[in-house]
């Protein structure tokens, strides 16, 4: 197990690094530590931002400092981080029609599968939200089946529509904005990830479990227009 490292970030934050290689086990440790920090509520704590292998802690520099926050976190690590709170299960709808999944055929060919088999494997997997990053609402999901774990494209494409379902390596992502990407696009979702709610701006929390559910084109179009069919 890699040694835990602490790195001061500006005058009001501390980066806690629990390891170097992304894995479900390490991400679970990060989330357990995150839960323990919030339960203990060290003096001056403002916010934590968990990622795959590390955790950023922001604090009020008038109340505490890097050394005191590190001491509080080390004490929690020695005690053993609290058990991870089971994440909620979220459903994301996805349509796999050819024009909405421009890389599905290429993924199938590279994986030695039919396009339908790729879809079946993608739907059968359970994903977990490991972190947010890159753009608002971009939730990085672990859990892509091994057969579908293909590298990124050598060159990113511009203007990929919001709602695109992407895979690269062991990760999956649903875009929330029109953005460039070098990941493989295997479907599109009408499910709203960004929410008009300041208290809960994203559909997912870190640690939530995600399952994809297939819909046909008619339902996709209806939901995109604000319908409920």
TrEMBL record:
| Protein's UniProt name | Inhibitor of KinA
Top-rank taxon, per record: Bacteria
Q: Does the keyword Glycoprotein apply?
A: no
Positions of the Carboxyltransferase domain? 4-204
* Keyword ATP-binding appears in the UniProt entry: yes
Entries under InterPro entries matching the protein: CT_C_D (IPR003833), Cyclophilin-like_dom_sf (IPR029000), PxpB (IPR010016)
High-level lineage = Bacteria, Pseudomonadati, Pseudomonadota, Alphaproteobacteria, Rhodobacterales
Whose protein is this, by species?
Marinovum algicola
Key words, A-Z = ATP-binding, Hydrolase, Nucleotide-binding
SUPFAM superfamilies from the entry?
Answer: Cyclophilin-like, PH0987 N-terminal domain-like
A GO term, aspect molecular function:
ATP binding
Q: Name one Pfam family in it.
A: CT_C_D
């Amino acid at each position: 197990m890699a040694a835990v490292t602490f790195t001061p970030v500006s005058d009001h934050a501390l980066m806690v690094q629990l390891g170097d290689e992304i894995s479900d086990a390490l991400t679970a440790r990060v989330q357990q530590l995150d839960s323990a920090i919030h339960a203990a509520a060290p003096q001056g704590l403002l916010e934590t931002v968990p990622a795959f292998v590390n955790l950023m802690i922001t604090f009020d520099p008038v109340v505490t400092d890097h050394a005191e926050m590190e001491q509080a976190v080390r004490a929690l690590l020695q005690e053993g981080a609290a058990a991870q709170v089971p994440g909620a299960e979220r459903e994301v709808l996805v349509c796999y029609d050819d024009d909405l999944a421009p890389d599905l055929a290429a993924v199938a060919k590279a994986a030695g599968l039919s396009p339908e088999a790729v879809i079946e494997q993608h739907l059968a997997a359970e994903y977990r939200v490991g972190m947010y990053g890159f753009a608002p609402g971009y939730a990085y999901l672990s859990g892509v089946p091994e057969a579908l774990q293909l590298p990124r494209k050598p060159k990113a494409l511009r203007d990929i529509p919001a709602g695109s379902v992407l895979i690269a390596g062991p990760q999956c992502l649903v875009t929330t904005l029109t953005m460039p990407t070098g990941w493989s696009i295997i479907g599109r979702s009408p499910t709203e990830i960004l929410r008009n709610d300041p208290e809960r701006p994203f559909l997912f929390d870190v640690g939530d479990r995600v399952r994809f559910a297939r819909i046909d084109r008619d339902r996709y179009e209806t939901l995109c227009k604000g319908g409920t069919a």
